[in-house]
Specification:
Elements lengths: L12 H9 L13 H21 L7 H25 L11 H25 L10 H33 L2
InterPro entries: MAL, Marvel, MARVEL-CKLF_proteins
Keywords: Membrane, Transmembrane, Transmembrane helix
Protein name: CKLF8 protein
């Protein structure tokens, strides 16, 4: 004998909100016109220069340049990630994350570790007759200090933003 089944489905407000909010991605063009946005793009371009200048040499023979490579590549990837988050306004879709604190910690740590890496980079340069890597290492140290100053600027702006959020 045929049986009759009744199936009832319900949807939670979380899934309804998730599907409604993820249907369109916002794009914030104005972010690139702000000083933090300009600094972030500069960090990406010059950070790329730092690690490609070192990667094109025999850096693996000198452990100090391995540290510089780690810092440069690590923060380059994270900066690209944060640029995508800011450009797509993903931070507005995840309000549980304290984005001002995350930005301050990210930029502050990038400033400190890049400063250390830039100092290690410049102090590890050797000008030997057989070293054909001198120019690349010298250029990478210059760009490392410029990137460090960019992260210092973004740390300042992140601190101002964090401070205004904590005072509310």
């Amino acid at each position: 004998r045929p049986r009759s089944h009744t199936v009832t489905t319900t949807s939670s407000s979380f899934t309804a909100n998730l599907s409604a909010s993820s249907s369109t991605l916002a794009y914030d063009r104005e972010f690139l016109r702000t000083l933090p946005g300009i600094l972030m793009v500069t960090e990406i371009v010059l950070g790329f220069m730092v690690w490609t200048l070192i990667a094109g040499t025999e850096y693996f023979l000198y452990p100090a340049f391995g540290w510089v490579m780690f810092v440069a590549v690590f923060y380059w990837v994270l900066t690209v990630f944060f640029l995508i988050i800011y450009m797509t306004m993903t931070y507005t879709r995840i309000p549980q994350v304290p984005w001002t604190t995350v930005g301050l910690c990210f930029n502050g740590s990038a400033f400190i570790l890049y400063l250390i890496a830039a100092i290690v980079d410049v102090s590890s340069i050797t000008q030997r007759a057989e070293s054909h890597n001198y120019n690349s290492w010298a250029a990478s140290s210059f760009f490392a200090f410029v990137v460090t100053s960019c992260y210092a600027g973004n740390t300042y702006f992140s601190f101002i933003s964090w401070q205004s959020r904590t005072l509310q």
